[in-house]
Every structure is written in structure tokens, then in C-alpha cells.
Amino acid sequence: MSDTPRRPETIAVTAGRPPHEPGAPLNQPVAFTSTFVQGGDPVYARYGNPTWSAFEEALGALEGGDCIAFSSGMAAVSAVMAQVPHGGAVVVARHTYQHALLLLDEGAASGRFEVRRVDITDGDAVEAALPGAALLWLESPTNPALEVADIPRLTAAARAAGVQSVVDNTFATPLLQRPLELGADIVVHSATKLIAGHSDVVLGAVVTGAPEAAERIRHHRGLHGAIPGPMEVFLALRGLRTLSVRLERAASNARELARRLADAPGVVEVRDPGLSTVLALVLADAAAADRVVERVRLWIPATSLGGVESTLERRRRWPTEAPTIPEGLLRLSVGIEHVDDLAEDLLQALGE
């Protein structure tokens, strides 16, 4: 048997640990320091930290590339977008996370980017938008529409067109989807969500299989100062250790809820990508969705996702959400509670 673990559930538990030596700590300690003794690496805390290195080793091993941790998911997104040349075109899913779209739209207003929005489920339309572009930005599943992209097809088309491809893998995680193996050049995470998993950390990450791209992104982090705190990284690594069991339970709950809610009163549509712990319920209108949010007792109205607790929100309550998202769409982040309790709470909230 190889000394190197091959299965992702094992990698999540074992990667990024100190050497197995007598008397050594089992976990990488938190390194609270701004300064390092001269003559070693790192030379300064803006460029590295042993706690970062442990997390980056673990997530990098899971995704199959070189990981760079950031202070937030949007810091990671910004670092990748910064690699696009001035005036370069970005092909992006129309239902991408709203703040990533805001970043692109603000850049477009100043001439920094050309933005080409596409329906990510229409492969022909995506391919038609690629010529002359600099970057293809994919989410799969998309947030909050929960559309699933044909990643191998689209990344292959991007490579053939000389376009770099990025996949935001926050919803699926590397336990359900490994975009680098599917042809992507870069993977982005809001590690705030399922990776850390306990709604107590803000953190981002970029993973790439290209050493030169990793060096550029790492340089951007150090130059712009979008560095994570060591305690946040420590907590995210601790959360990563249990990702497989959390994901298994929450995903199982999500599939069962999708089945039970399909014929529930007032539900027009259940969107279940089958590739995440996130569902969407489409109700008749905003008022119907708002009533459910007001009536739930176990589910928590909140805008984030990926924690052990179940949360929900009506996404169009945000004025910056895409107008093609239905007014009555509720995004559900399914947690690890008992599925019967989750279902009962939603069904009573949906009832007249």
C-alpha cells in the first residue's frame, strides 16, 4: 500500500499535518507572529505563515494544485480578476455570485473589463462568446440559480480559444467536483462556506496547477495585502478535517428535502443540482417567499451558507441580484440537523 493517501476523505484528514515525530503536536499550531528571524523563509508575515502553509497544503492536495489562501472569498476573486489585462473580455455566467458580477460591472464602467454574460447551460452560446476573451469565469452549480455547467466541454473550448478558465467550486467542494481534473486552469473558493463549515470564519482560496499562475497570484496577495489571519486559517483547516462527514449528511438531507418538497403547497419548482448542500425553492412571488422566511422556526434567515446549521433567504431581496432570478426564489443551505425536523419546519411555513 502506498504511503500517500489517495482518497479525498483521507486527504482531508491527513494533509497539512506536522511530521509524525515523538512529542510533536498532532495539529499544526497557530503561529501568531508578524516577524520571523532573519535567514529563513518566510521573511515577513505578509508573505507566509506556517499555519497558512498547513491549510494550503491540505486544500491544494484535495483540489490537485497549488493553493493560495486569502482573507476572503472576494479577495480571492479579485486576485484572479486582476490577472486579466486592461480592457480584456471576461465571459461569465449571468447568475454568478452577485459581488463577483459587481466587481466586473464596476470594472466595465471604468474600461477595465469587457463583460460578456452568458447562460452557462447553453454551451453553444458560451463557446460563441469566447473568441478574443481573456477569461472564462464559471460557477457550477451557479449561485443562486443552481445551474450546472458542462465543465469539460467549456474548459476545452476555452483552451482551444486561448482563454484561461476559472471555476468557483464553493458549492461543490473538491469532494464532489475537482475542476482542475476537468480542464480548468484555476479554482476559486469562498472557504467561509463548506470548507470551514461552522459559520465562524471569513476566508478565501485560489488553487491552480500552473506554477507561474500560482506565483503571480501569490505575488498579488503579498503586494495588495489580502492576507488571512492565522486563527482564521487554523479554524478553516479544522473545519476541513470534517468536510466529508458534514457534506455526506447535509447532501443526503438536501436530496431528501428536494423529494419531500416537490409537491408541497405553494412550491412552483424545486431546484436541486445534486452536487451540493444547496437547494432552491421557487414560490409564486416575493410575498409568498417572505412569508416562509417569517414563519420558519428551525431554519435561520441568513445570507451565508455552508454551515452545519440550515439557513435560507429570498435572494431577490438584494437589489443587486440578477433580474432573471425569480422574485419568489428561496435559496436553502441545508445543514446536518435531522431531516424530519427540517422538513416539518418548512412544511408548516409553507402551509396556509
UniProtKB/TrEMBL annotation:
Q: Which domain of life is it from?
A: Bacteria
Transmembrane residue ranges: none
Q: Which Gene3D superfamilies match?
A: Aspartate Aminotransferase, domain 1, Type I PLP-dependent aspartate aminotransferase-like (Major domain)
InterPro entries of this UniProt entry? Cys/Met-Metab_PyrdxlP-dep_enz, PyrdxlP-dep_Trfase, PyrdxlP-dep_Trfase_major, PyrdxlP-dep_Trfase_small
Question: For this protein, what is the EC number?
Answer: 4.4.1.2
Q: Where is this region: Disordered?
A: 1-25
A GO biological process held by the record: cysteine biosynthetic process via cystathionine
On this chain, the residues bearing N6-(pyridoxal phosphate)lysine are: 193
PANTHER family, from UniProt?
A: CYSTATHIONINE GAMMA-LYASE (PTHR11808:SF15), TRANS-SULFURATION ENZYME FAMILY MEMBER (PTHR11808)
Q: What is this protein called?
A: homocysteine desulfhydrase
Query: Source species, please?
Result: Agrococcus baldri
What does the organism's lineage look like at the top?
A: Bacteria, Bacillati, Actinomycetota, Actinomycetes, Micrococcales
